[in-house]
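Help needed: design a sequence for this.
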């Protein structure tokens, strides 16, 4: 790659990173139709990811008709999904004027190789399960990274998301505690860009916005994930199974903003009476008296 090409890639990535950093502290909501997208827009979402309903589940990129319908209804950034490694799908979505592309490994894959994202004009969201994979996705050109999971979107356990985030942050903390020799050795052993790893160590955080995903529908879970070091969350489409999805999303937005304020978080629980994952009441109004 010539010096001019390298400089062009750097400028393009800086522009995409500037856009992606505007998602820090926010939620991206998975939606199934324009009505859900409108609800998400009105109640705090920074972007939406359209997916097909269970009856018409897609094995490839997001349906272009669904994307167009949602883009006609909302002003939010709309994120299209493509199969892992499917560069042609990504180019089609880029031409369809989506704001961002997510390379999704749960769709039918065309191989283990990931898309080289730097030539694209629009930003990519990459998926990763480990710190090494996060560095790999960033090197490929992802300007947001989110956690991943092997199960279907609605079947994953949120506890697995917590465990993944904790492991990633523990590995980052260990990396940051090492000296320059240890950092260079880590980069070499894992075939990573040394300058990228050095940047993470210098900043003591993942260099791009890091989002948690995986059955996230609970405000208190969101607050906990933020305290662990996440920059935002991808809210599951299951949130619309709640009888009051508008209220739930408002509370998630409040938890993102006040995640370090237990008093305000307690106010969310007090106001709602608590949540179960199915949307009902989780906590009694008062505990029964202790037996004498």
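Sure. Designed sequence:
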């Amino acid at each position: 790659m010539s010096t001019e090409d390298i400089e062009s890639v750097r400028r393009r990535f800086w522009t995409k990173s500037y856009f992606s950093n505007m998602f820090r502290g926010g939620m991206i909501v998975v939606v199934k139709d324009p009505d859900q997208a409108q609800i998400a827009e009105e109640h705090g979402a920074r972007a939406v990811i359209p997916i097909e309903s269970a009856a018409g589940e897609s094995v490839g990129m997001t349906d272009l008709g669904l994307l167009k319908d949602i883009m006609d209804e909302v002003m939010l950034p709309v994120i299209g999904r493509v199969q892992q490694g499917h560069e042609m799908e990504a180019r089609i979505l880029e031409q369809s004027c989506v704001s961002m592309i997510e390379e999704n490994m749960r769709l039918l894959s065309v191989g283990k190789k990931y898309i080289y994202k730097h030539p694209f004009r629009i930003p990519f969201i990459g998926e990763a399960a480990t710190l090494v994979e996060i560095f790999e996705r960033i090197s490929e050109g992802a300007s947001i990274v989110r956690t991943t999971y092997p199960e279907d979107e609605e079947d994953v356990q949120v506890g697995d998301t917590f465990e993944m985030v904790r492991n990633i942050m523990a590995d980052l903390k260990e990396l940051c505690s090492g000296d320059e020799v240890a950092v260079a050795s880590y980069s070499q052993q894992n075939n990573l860009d040394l300058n990228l790893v050095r940047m993470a160590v210098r900043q003591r955080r993942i260099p791009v916005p890091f989002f948690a995903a995986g059955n996230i529908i609970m405000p208190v879970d969101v607050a906990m994930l933020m305290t662990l070091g996440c920059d935002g969350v991808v809210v599951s489409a299951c949130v619309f199974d709640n009888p009051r999805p508008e209220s739930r999303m408002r509370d998630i937005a409040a938890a993102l903003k006040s995640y370090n304020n237990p008093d305000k978080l307690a106010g969310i629980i007090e106001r709602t009476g608590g949540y179960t994952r199915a949307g009902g009441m989780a906590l009694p109004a008062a505990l029964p008296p202790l037996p004498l």
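The beta strands are 26-31, 45-50, 79-83, 100-104, 124-128, 144-147, 210-213, 232-235.
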